[in-house]
Design brief:
The protein is mostly helical and about 150 residues long. It is built from seven helices and four strands. It has one domain: Lysozyme. The protein is about 50% helix and about 10% strand. It has a two-stranded antiparallel ribbon with strand order 1-2. A two-stranded antiparallel ribbon has the order 3-4. A hairpin with a 5-residue loop joins strand 1 and strand 2 (about 40-45). Helix 1 runs parallel beside helix 3, helix 1 packs antiparallel against helix 7 and helix 2 crosses helix 3 (about 85-100). The radius of gyration is 15 Å and the shape is globular. The termini are far apart.
């Protein structure tokens, strides 16, 4: 649901590095399409309210992305119990955005991270490179970019 322009919103925590990563890998689609997992998608990877035949503008795609980011920021903030740098938080929001909150919540990555095993996160990210059981090069590249963002110190 697109929020009215005067709705009070909490500031987003994801940094521009994370937003740029999502936009790069999702691409902008103003008409619905089926992603490799066979889920209807529009805008920058938005899936919740897509209907066949709908059309959106770039401004609406940005607004949908903002709404989606807020959902995934809340999920990461709720599920991660250890401190994160801005880039680590952004990498996890990007990851969660792509795999979904349920998968993130049940992941080994989250379990290891919450034990304080930060160094395990990049390797755990790289394990999530499949759609429908098939390895996808785009997912492998995305996971590598998320791992680089995770390790980025500035």
């Amino acid at each position: 649901m697109i929020m009215p322009p005067d709705a009070p919103l909490m500031p987003r925590r994801i940094n521009q590095n994370g937003i740029d990563l999502i936009k790069q890998f999702e691409g902008l689609h103003l008409s619905p399409y089926l992603c490799p997992s066979r889920i209807w998608t529009i805008g920058y990877g938005h899936t919740r309210t897509v209907r066949a035949g709908m059309q959106i503008t770039e401004a609406q795609a940005d607004q949908l992305l903002d709404e989606d980011l807020r959902l995934f920021e809340r999920s990461v903030s709720r599920l991660v119990t250890v401190p994160l740098s801005d880039n680590q938080f952004a990498a996890l929001v990007c990851f969660c955005f792509n795999i979904g909150t349920g998968n993130f919540e049940s992941s080994t990555l989250l379990r290891l991270l919450n034990r304080g095993w930060y160094e395990q996160v990049p390797a755990q990210l790289m394990r999530w490179n499949r759609a429908n059981g098939e390895i996808f090069g785009g997912l492998a590249r995305r996971r590598a970019a998320e791992a680089r963002l995770w390790n980025k110190t500035l």
